[in-house]
Amino acid sequence: MKKYTLFLRLCFFGFFLSGFSQTRAVPQVDLIEINDAITPVTSRFIKESIEEAIEDSAECLIIMMDTPGGLVQATQVIVKHILSSEVPVVVYVAPSGSGAVSAGVSITLAAHIAVMASGTNIGAAHPVTPGPQDTSDVKMEKYTNWWATFNRSIAEKRGRNPDWAEDAVRKSVSITEKEALEIGVVDMVCENLRELLDRIDGKEVEVLAGKKILKTKEAVIKRLEMGLRYRILSVISNPNIAYILLMLGIYGLFFELSNPGSIFPGVVGAIFLILAFFALQTLPINYAGLLLILLGIVLFIAEIKITSYGMLTVGGVISMILGSIMLFESPEPFFKVSLGVILPAVIFTALFFIFALSMALRAHKRQVSTGTEGLVGEIGEARTNVFKDGSVSVHGEIWNATSARTIKAGTKVRVIGVDRMTLRVERFKEG
User: Is 237 annotated as catalytic?
Assistant: First the structure.
């Protein structure tokens, strides 16, 4: 009986400790950092981070953001994920000196709680779209109206300043963190993450599943890093890297076509081209620019085949420079190829084809040294008397030979022509 009573007490004590530990469990918040342009890679990373925060039963997901802007489609996808999230999303524009520009405005407005650090800014929300760009006034006006309405609707849903959200698109207005707090664009200004967690503790937010009260005062922070796959995709989505991959891919295929069977240049070139095409589909590409680059390559190749005294090379250089500048059509500088990348690439390409051209011309001018034509001008010795027939020794080989004049056996001869397998020779005179 005593053993039974002791067993019940131990069980009760164990359940008590278990419940106590559950009530005393330390809350957790997940944190990601976005420090680059908004691209489809960014939208995928944020989507997976929201899903992981749900699995972690995190109090919220904090997006620490510093972005110069990005693509409209990627931004739209991110906003949808935030608005339909089952876990509260806190956007924190930080650290000092950071900004939520262009696409960053829409993401900040969509957050359940929007926070900025001191010395940050937000605004200038011009739309930027991937694919072929149409800069006609009518289409741009329609697109601007749509994006302004999109931002306004987000602001109204989150109870933020809808007029400013619309002006950020139409008038490209930009404001500091203090102004944003005063006019109701963000909810608070915090100096660091710990202050942010203390201040949002106890706040009630509405997520897809209903209302939730945040408990973040003593929460631990779990940082979610981009995996290797996302880091690679993020790197190659840089316009400069995409451009370099495109050029290397073209070089690789050119080497393979010039030297069939090399295999390695063709395989590497194909890999580079596939990576380049993946990057190009995530960027605001102008197909006219891409065609000009390909035209430049064609002109360089044509220079090797056609004697144009350098005109095709000049045309190729001009075509490549213009195509490279036009390749990514966007008002944002981070979606354009740097001249520091374009000029070396064009110069290297031009020098490569000029070098190839000069080597080809030298090969044409060089005396033939192989085959029967390579025997012309060679010195040999008559093995028999040579006139209408006879035989000579050239390079240790015995050849049938003819001559316009009789040449005695043992006399040195010079080959002056080849008629099928018979050599035409003449007497060789020293000097």
Answer: no
